Structure formats: C-alpha cells, structure tokens
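Action item from last week, closing it out:
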Amino acid sequence: MLSATPAISATEYQHVAEANKIELEKEIEDLKNSLEIRNIEIENKIATLKQNSEIYSDELKEIKLDQSKLGNYIPALMTLFATFLGAGIAFKTQNHILEKGKRDKQLAAANTVLYILFERLNTIVQFRKDFIEPHRNKPLCHIEMLPLHNFQAPKSELKAEEIAFLFNPKYRELMVDLHVANQYFFITLNDIQLRSSLHFKYQKLIEENGVCSGQSLYETEIIEIIGERNYEALKLATKHLISDVDICVTRNYELRGKLITAFSEIFTKQEIFDFQFSYKQSIDGNMES
C-alpha cells in the first residue's frame, strides 16, 4: 500500500528558499573575505620580495664596487707578495749555504782530529815495536834498549777548539779524555828524548873508559863505570818510558773509538774517516803489533 507525501504550501516554500538564499550569501561573503585576506598576504610577500631584491641589488653593487677597487690593488699586492717571497727564498738559500759551510768545516775538523790521532798512534806503536818489544821482559832492558839520535814525532797539533761543536754536556767526558790523551802523547815524547839523552851520555862514559863498541859488560862493571846513581836513573827512565808508551797508546786508541762514535752521531758514518791500524787490542789493554 502506497503512502502519499504531504503537500508543501507556497508560503512554506518561500520561507525555505529565503533561508537558503541568506545562507548562500553568507558563504559567498565569507569566501570573499578569505580571498581578500589571501590577496593581502600575497601582496605583502611580493612587497617583501621586492624590498629584499632591492637590498640584495644594493649589496651586489657594493660587492662589485669592492671587487673593482680590489682589482686595482691586486697587481700591487702581487708585486709585494712576490718581493717577500723572493726575499724569503733568498734568506733560506743563504742560510742553507751558511749552515752547509759550517757543517763542512766541522766535518773537516772531525776528520783532521781522527787523522792526527792515527798519525800519533802509528808513530808511538812503531816505536814500541822497534825499540821496546824486543827487550821488554829482559832483566837488562834498560841497557839493551837502543837510544834514538833523532826521534821524528808528528808535527800536527791536536787542538780541542777545532772540534768546539762537541763542547756540550753530552760529550763532557770525551773532551776530558781528549785533553788527557794529548798530555800523555807529549809526556811520552819527553820520555823518549830523556832516556835517549841519558843512554848516550852513559854510553860515552863507557867508551871513554876503553870499552869497545859491541863488547859485553856485566851489570856491576857498568855501575862501576857510570856510577850507581846514573845507573838507577837510566833504569827508572826506561821503566817510565815503557809504562807511558803503553798508556799513551791505550788512551789514544780508546779516544779514537769514542770520537768515531761521537762524530757518527753528528755526521754520517760514511763521512767519517775510520783510519784502520795493522794491530789489534790485546786482552790486557795494550796494543800488540
């Protein structure tokens, strides 16, 4: 069974239409207001962008102006920089040359000292080999050991100031050893000259008493001719000579080794002249030929 829809009167319809119209007009007004607000926001953003654009444009002009001004200074700055750079390179080059020259002098001094020690050691060791060793353990060593008419000692001088670059706490003991070894060398030279002069003196007395060259004499006969005091003086001089020669060789040989080690720390081992000897160090500390 179908139901019928109730009929709407014209008056009611008119009221509904007016209500819908009012609501629609309100929505349109709200939309307009919203659009106007949006347009204002857009205009504000555009204005802000224009303002920022003008600011950036002004800053860009200033940057370009600064660059233009800087461009005028660049040649002068480059010239100034080149001048300082050239001066710096020249200074470093000159300083390098001076340092190299200083090092070369120190290296030459180091090798000179080593050569002087080699020369002295070679001389004293050769003397010991020829004059001391053949008679060292004989009872009449002081009589049988021959004197020297003219002992040729090296004329080179061992000067500590030549290696003054070693004057620092690390090598303090080494410089003391250098002084001691140098003193023992001159003591040994004096011993050789003193003993030789005594031997020649007493030999002359013996010859003046009619003893021919090569003739054998007993110790008592020698004492009777030259006197007991002179005999003991020759004996003591010979003893001191042998002792000082041994000490001189040992001191200078040890000093040589220490100097080679020290110089090798400052320079390279290839630059140091390690002069080799034809003798070895014995167990008791003396040198054997």
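Closing note: The beta strands are 280-281, 287-288.
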